[in-house]
Amino acid sequence: MSGDVAVAEAGQAPSRNRILARFLRNRPGIVALMVVVIVVLAAIFAPYIAPYDPDQQFFDGLTLEGMPLPPNARFPLGTDLLGRDLLSRLIYGARVSLIIGVVANGTALAIGAVLGTVAGYLRGRVGQIIMRITDLMMAFPALILAIALAAILRPSMWIVALVIALVNWVWIARVVHSQVLSLAEQEFITAAVAVGASRSRVFFRHLLPHLVPTLIVWGTLGIASSVLLEASLSFLGVGVQPPTPSWGGIINESQSYFLDAPWLVAFPGAAILVTSLAFNLLGDGLRDALEPDRTGEL
Amino acid sequence: MIRYIISRLGQAVLVLIGISLITFLLTFLVPADPARMIAGRLATPETVARIRAELGLDQPLPVQYGRYLWNLLHGDLGRSYAQRIEVTELLMSRLPATFQLMVAGILAEVLLGIPAGILAALGRSRWPDRLGMVLAFSGVSAPQFAVGLLLLYLLGYRWPVFPLGGYGTWRHVILPALTLGIAGAGWYARVMRSAMVEVLNQHYIRTATAKGLPPTKVVLKHALRNSILPVVSMVGLDIGVFMGGVVVVESVFAWPGIGQLAWQAIQILDIPVIMGVVILTASFIVLGNLLADLAYPLLDPRIRYK
Amino acid sequence: MMRWRRAVWGSLLMALVVLLGAAAMASAQQRGGSMVVTYMTDVTTLDPAIGYDWQNWSIIKSMFDGLMDYVPGTTELVPQLAERFEVSEDGLTYTFYLRRGVKFHNGREVVASDVKYSLERVLTPATQSPGLGFYLVIEGAEDFVEGRASEVTGIRVLDDYTVQFKLARPDASFLHILALNFAHVVPREEVERYGPDFGHNPVGTGAFKLKEWVLGQRLVLERHPEYFKPDRPYLDQVVFEFGFEPNVALLRLQRGEVDILGDGIPPARFVQIMEDPQWSRLVEVGEQLHTGYVTLNTRVKPFDDVRVRQALNMAINKERIVRIINNRAVPANQILPPLMPGYNHEYEGYPYDPERAKQLLAEAGYPNGFSTVLYAMNVDPNPRIAQSIQQDLAAIGVQVELRTLAQSTVIELGGTEGQAPMIWSGGMAWIADYPDPNIFYWPILACASAIPGGWNWAWYCNEEIEARAAYADTLVLPEQQEERAALWREIYTDIMAEAPWIPIFHEMRYTMHSERVGGAENIFVDPLHIPINYEEVYRK
User: Fold this and answer.
1) Contact partners of B by the rule of 3+ C-beta pairs under 8 A?
2) DSSP states of C359-405 as a string?
3) Contact A151 C390 (CB under 8 A)
């Protein structure tokens, strides 16, 4: 049904007001948008919002035996293993995590989507070459690259972002490739080609809309996994260096204390969960607003 | 089809050579000298130089790589710098456990994720969908170390249902597989759901229901078959990823897999082991993707081998 | 009358029988049984010429023996495979008389030529032994290593049970060097049979022999029936299980599946364990021959100015750092740890005085501080300790950029001239190979090790002190040892005045064991056997 409609609606763009109206009706989408906005604002205005300096180690932020403090009146989310306020670190940590989750992950998404589609649609030798490069990159020892870069370059968040983008696009490429393989054989594509549609038109008007759900899934789940991956790479010295906070980094350095100081994993984990979930709902909301005919039930 | 497989195998060889070259070059970018690590704290520069000569590290890079490739083609992956033991022996000792966990992990992901995805698709925008979404994201966001440790603590220590880590019986593999499953099921669930929603919108589904076929049959026979494709490619990916080792799960559960081996080798720059692991992992990645590619035409007859 | 006396004798006899029976049962209890030890990583090698990490060091000690050893639980030297030995007046000739009847695991008796073979093996470059450098003090060793001689002339086999060493110069730590694992005796025929795989098929003279080794999973040692000490080892078997993360290993010990935590108590659970009497009574605490320190690169500005180095020494709050690691250490004010002979108990070191530190910096020409880089290893708790140091230095105006990297990378950077201004040594910190004060000088503070690839990361070189150190090491005779200790004490005090390091703390040893394992208290914190001396523990 959707295929027919897409071909039929060629040349007709829905009005902006209607898109906005549809989006506003989607309650989860609104909530998600607000959450995303809050997180972004928190990241930008961190110095004004955070109760303490995120790097300040309080001598009495640890117990006498050196264990972190659970949430209390002075430190609402507790302290970390150096006696620093967890809430402040989470707020500042949003900066790194957002950039990693959105920029790095987004870049990986874009590269993967394009290459996967080209490989799946063109097939033949070009497709094979692209897919073998994908195999190669999948086996690529990212950790070693990380260590090598750590020693050669000044460590920075952008290097990590680059490494993540470089390494993560392959998964999306593979999945998109398989989807495009089956999509390309479907009637509405052959119809469009028969009618004389150009390659780019086929791609943008016919293929891409069908890929959007998959891209949303990978894009938003990818935020969570990228944030956690950043922590592993920074651990090897290539990314943010202590004391700069990041959500994944806080989890990484506190993981073995999980049984005794669960708040150090639970709160950053919740932040990752809420943020990636919010992006997902936002993405779903946008997609539903742009192409309402997609909703349907059995 | 045979011709396709042969050409793919040929390409696989190219990929393996490519990855070995890339890894080889990367290890030389890292400014740590394996000879110095072996030589120990009291080594004089002469001793270090001697060890470098013994290991052939003073040869120009192309010579070193050429020698490595030559040995590789004869099945000789060299000896570990730290353990002085043959790399092939090290890899072989880890392979069975890694394979077992790979199978069990994928099973866990699929058994947890697919039904959740189907239910979410069927109950679209209602509570099964919402709940499924939250669960999926929670699983992916939860750090594996914490999940594994928690499972082990609850089900291995507090209520001793399962052994506290280790390898051997079917009981040993359940918790690690479950940890992998929790982390990965979310992807399967969401991809399954969105693929199935697409399919459920299609003409032929409406036709089938209009014809009066029971909904379950429609779902299982028609919808599932046509939406499983991206899931199959994910399984292919997972084969490769899991065979490369999952170091976090292996660490928590004392699982003697390749992940731990690789991680330790990277820390001390044990180049022969690193190369061996990368080549082995690459082989399985290529294999996993090849199997997935071979499966596509079986599931969607319109796709043909090219 | 007779009946009464018979009754007395009868009861005495019964008492004797009961006592003997009890004694027999008690020692029978001590003999036999097995023990489980967990480790995170697999043992790399059991070849005494090659094994040089803190994990395989004690295992190798229990499978091999050398001419010298230490009294269990102490740092006191005692002959091992040698029955006795003689040292010449000039300290250049050591003659060892071997015990008779010491058997390798393969049944053959040890003879003097085995000693020579084992040491020449270490000195052979093809073996790639990290211990090669220790034995260059033997006459003829350098020629042998360079390939100019086919044997080490300084090692002489006088007869089957007598071996003599001639040194190129007197060395007060020579007996310690002979007690190192590298000098443990190996049988030539087995080494030649297994070649490079000898490390996984070890054959020695020690209390335990290899029974089974499943790579990455399990290593099993069993008692050597012909061990030359008839009442050792107590245990029949020691089982090592690998892959266990410290938190999980602890859970297993608490469940009774594991006897010794090879990697120690996981820091995350340390406080809980020590506060719970049910578990804290299973923990033995002791000192180690360890110092954790920050090196200040004397060849990099501004650390070439001694006032800057002294200022930094006064800026660090060591109490807080010790608290961060749950009080598992004591703050350090000097280079040597308290257990080491030559430790200066009266020395006060640099006080924690940030104000004075800022003054000194101003005097040196840095009233507003400066920027620099601190390297550390990335494994917990080292990044945390480094961050604490970073904060302390920020308080006196020194902006420190922190780089936490993999161990091998930090080591490489430390050994490259002009690269690393500051390095926190944690995770790579100095634990003495043997209990002699010179081990803290020659590898990490001497001019001779301030070379590319060296471990003297402070690149500190004081020729005058070097000469004094060399002289102190020529004092070989027992009656000179007090003088020697005094000399070393002065040397280290003078080094501290130049402050090439900031000594931070000395780590304590915490060994946790199960109820079933028994042993003398000092066995569990034997400074030279980590985690324990396998021959000396028994099953209760």
Assistant:
1) A, C
2) HHHHHTT-TT-EEEEEEEESSTTHHHHHHHHHHHHHHTTEEEEEEEE
3) no
Q: Is the pLDDT of residue A297 over 80?
A: no
Q: Do A242 and C327 touch (CB under 8 A)?
A: no
Query: What sign does the dihedral A98-A99-A103-A106 (CA atoms) show?
Result: negative
CATH 1.10.3720.10 boundaries in chain B: 94-299
Give the best-scoring range by mean pLDDT among A1-5, A220-224, C239-243: C239-243
Contacting residues for C175 by C-beta, under 8 A, at least 6 apart: C68, C77, C94
* Nearest residue on chain A to B301, alpha-carbon basis: A182
Tell me the CA end-to-end span of chain B in Å, nearest whole number: 9
> Residues of B with CB below 8 A from C451's CB?
45
pLDDT tier at A296, thresholds 50, 70, 90: very low
What ipTM describes this predicted complex? 0.89
Pairwise CA distance, residues C207 & B240, whole Å: 45
Phi-psi region of B61 (alpha: psi -120 to 50; beta: other; left: phi over 0): alpha
Amino acid at C333: N
Give how far Cα C463 sits from Cα of C50, C467, C469, C491, Å: 33, 6, 10, 12
Residue numbers in A near C274 (CB within 8 A) = 65
CA A119 to chain centre: 23
CATH of domain B94-299: 1.10.3720.10
Q: Tell me the pTM.
A: 0.89
Q: How far is CA A238 from CA A142, A248, B18, C307, C376, in A?
A: 11, 14, 25, 34, 14
Condensed to tens digits (0 to 9), the pLDDT of residues A207-240 reads 777 888 889 888 988 998 898 888 888 887 778 8
Residue B8 neighbours by CB under 8 Å, 6+ apart = B290, B293
Residue from C45, C219, C251 whose CB has the most chain B CBs within 10 Å, to mutate? C251
Q: How far apart are CA A116 and CA A131, in angstroms?
A: 8
pLDDT digits (tens, 9 = 90+) for C120-172: 999 998 898 888 888 999 999 999 998 899 999 999 999 999 999 999 999 99
Q: Does B227 touch chain A (CB under 8 A)?
A: no
Reference B51, options B38, B64, B32, B65; nearest CA is B38
Cβ-in-10-Å burial (0-12, 13-18, 19+) of C327 comes to middle
Say whether residue A210 is in contact with chain B using an 8 A CB cutoff.
Answer: yes
C269 contacts A260? CB cut-off 8 A: yes
Under 8 Å between Cβ of C47 and C63 = no
> Which residue from C minimizes the CA distance to B31?
C409
Give C280's contacts (C-beta < 8 A, 6+ positions apart).
Answer: C273, C274
Task: Identify the helix (H) or strand (E) that includes residue C506.
Answer: strand C501-512
Minimal C-alpha gap between C375 and chain A (Å): 10
CB contact under 8 A, C408 and B37: yes
Alpha carbon separation from B2 to A153, A182, B8, B243, B306 (Å, rounded): 48, 22, 10, 26, 12
3-state secondary structure chain B: CHHHHHHHHHHHHHHHHHHHHHHHHHHHHCCCCHHHHHHCCCCCHHHHHHHHHHHCCCCCHHHHHHHHHHHHHCCCCCECCCCCCEHHHHHHHHHHHHHHHHHHHHHHHHHHHHHHHHHHHHCCCCHHHHHHHHHHHHHHHCCHHHHHHHHHHHHHHHCCCCCCCCCCCHHHHHHHHHHHHHHHHHHHHHHHHHHHHHHHCCHHHHHHHHHCCCHHHHHHHHHHHHHCHHHHHHHHHHHHHHHCCCHHHHHHHCCCCHHHHHHHHHHHCCHHHHHHHHHHHHHHHHHHHHHHHHHHHHHCCCCCCC
Interstrand relation of C422-424 and C501-512 (parallel, antiparallel or unpaired):
unpaired
